[in-house]
Amino acid sequence: MVEITREITREKPNLLQRSREELIYTHLLCTVFGLGNKQTFKEALVGGDKLFKSDIALALPNMTLVIEYDGGYWHGEKSVERDLSKTQKILMSDENTCLVRFRNGAAHLETPVGYESRCLVINEKTTNQIKQVTETLKALSKQKDIASHIKSAKISKSHFENTNKIVNEVIEECSESYKDARVLMLSVLGSIALVDKVFGIDGVLCRPMTIANGIKRLKDEYGLRGQQLVTFMCSGIASKLGNEQFWNDIQKSGTPVPPDPLARTCLQNLLLSD
Fold first, then answer.
1. Predicted confidence (pLDDT) per residue in 86-135, tens digit
2. SS3 of residue 98 by DSSP
3. What pTM was computed for the model?
4. Could you say which of 146, 172, 198 is where a domain stops?
5. Which domain holds residue 209?
6. What is the pLDDT of residues 58-74, one digit of tens each?
């Protein structure tokens, strides 16, 4: 099992490859198990870092519960074998380790044969995060060993508000250059609501200043502004802003970036193609 030591409690979790959506889902589940305070959440994130770079590893009595949140963009058909391999490594690491994988719009994944009592794979597709956790709770209630540790069988609005508060605090404390990136994005986008939308995109937390500088460049050099700019920033675009080849490809496509939504989608598809 993953043991929470003083060393772990002093470490900061690595937010690379962790989206805000993932952090909210995993914290809501921490709350379900009565482990929703900020320090315990950070320890669970660090525990996950140490266990094959899992999303979180919760230290429950006589058990380590690993939780993985798999979004559709990064967990398509090409990732199925990789995800299955990671699942098996986690389960083989200790006989007292259990795993929950929530596949939100990801390619379908089956529970590995022989691990049905310790592994739960939930294939769903919903943007409603309270529903995500509710569906997870329904599935967990059928797993006796895990269900016995559940402290709260329902997620309320107040739970969700507290989760947002704690996730924001963890991001501010642990994400490099987070505050500076928010200031720059706000100066470009002109709205805190739009800045929050950008930070909800997969891949932004791991390199916020790269994204902020890329957004500024898209505005200054290619004329995208406000909501138009945020719409252009899909997950794939965010992952490419630090790549000079992306900017070379944009120049080849012609400037400015087309303001028409359909034309902009066509350009996105062009730039995201291999």
1. 999 999 999 999 999 999 999 999 999 999 999 999 999 998 988 999 99
2. strand
3. 0.75
4. 172
5. 176-272
6. 999 999 999 999 988 77
Q: How confident is the model at residue 228 (pLDDT cuts 50, 70, 90)?
A: confident
Phi, then psi, of 213 in degrees rounded to 5: -65, -35
- 258 domain-assigned: yes
Q: Is 199 exposed, middle or buried (0-12, 13-18, 19+ CB in 10 A)?
A: buried
C-beta of residue 129 within 8 angstroms of C-beta of residue 101: no
CB atoms within 10 A of CB 192: 11
Confidence at 5, pLDDT banded by 50, 70, 90: very low
C-alpha torsion sign, points 162, 163, 168, 174? positive
Residue 188 near residue 160 (C-beta atoms within 8 A)? no
Q: Does residue 1 lie within any of the structural domains?
A: no
Packing angle, helices 38-50 and 157-174, rounded to 10:
60
Paired tokens of 67: 């939780």
CB 22, CB 171: distance < 8 Å: no
Tokens of 49: 């870092």
- 55 vs 60: CA distance, rounded Å: 16
Instruction: Reduce the DSSP state of residue 269 to 3 states and report it.
Output: helix
Distance CA 267, CA 258 (A): 8
* Residue appearing with tokens 């200790």: 94
Q: Are residues 69 and 105 in the same domain?
A: yes
> 79, 84, 95: which is closest to 17 by C-alpha?
79
